[in-house]
Design goal:
single chain, about 220 residues, alpha/beta, 8-stranded parallel β-barrel, about 15% strand, binds SN-glycerol-3-phosphate
Length: about 220
């Protein structure tokens, strides 16, 4: 499973990228606003830092607007993945960019039918929002399992990119569902390594080793 980081914060992204385990980055208008940065500048910096798909989202609501914004974003770097909303215009734009060989990510997916439409439009990624479904007292992971099943049934080539991932349990469940990728906030990514028994075990090993007085190298 690929790990994408859902952020436009360069300091936090750098911390995550330093692990060597970051496969891509996703952004959205909210994250760009939070960064306080110009979208062209920050996407350029992200592309220079992480070698993988970098999702940059259009703001236009109509096909022509999405086309010109997506083309402008895709000129920043070949890794830019044009992120498009789950609307008819968004799917039309998705087909336009897919036909041009430009990677796409259809976002705000909340149903299997929407995911099937994204696959038909040739999306590289579809982003089902797990946490936002949980917020509505509807199990977001049910949607992931259903899309996995539907995509196998119709032999879809689109990658499922689990989004709105909020907890370590979501991460585990996405991995067990076998989806291709997830996008997660930096703090959650950095937390995934933690386990109290790992820490306790390391503390013991360090103390025992020190008492041997040996050196390995
Ligand atoms: O980038 C889209 C998604 O990951 C947003 O997550 O937590 O705002 O629902 P959240």
């Amino acid at each position: 499973m690929k790990f994408f980081i859902d952020t436009a914060d360069m300091a936090l992204l750098t911390k995550c990228a330093d692990t060597g385990l970051v496969d891509g980055v996703t952004t959205n208008p909210t994250l760009i606003r939070q960064s306080g940065r110009n979208i062209h500048e920050v996407i350029g910096e992200i592309c220079a830092l992480v070698d993988g798909p970098i999702s940059a989202e259009v703001a236009a609501m109509d096909f022509e607007g999405m086309k010109s914004e997506g083309l402008a974003l895709s000129k920043i770097h070949p890794n830019v993945t044009v992120k498009l909303p789950m609307t008819w215009d968004g799917l039309k734009a998705c087909r336009f960019f897919s036909d041009k060989g430009i990677k796409t990510n259809v976002t705000l997916c909340f149903s299997v039918n929407q995911a099937v439409l994204a696959a038909k439009a040739g999306a590289t990624f579809v982003s089902p929002f797990i946490g936002r479904l949980d917020d509505q007292v509807s199990d977001g992971m049910d949607l992931i399992h259903d899309i996995v099943e539907a995509y196998v049934a119709i032999d879809a080539q689109t990658n499922i990119l689990g989004a709105s991932v909020r907890t370590p349990l979501h991460v585990k469940q996405c991995a067990m569902a076998g989806i291709q990728a997830i996008t997660i906030p930096p703090a959650l990514f950095l937390k995934l390594i933690e386990h109290p028994l790992t820490k306790a075990g390391l503390d013991t090993f360090a103390a025992d080793w020190a008492s041997t007085g040996q050196k390995i190298a």
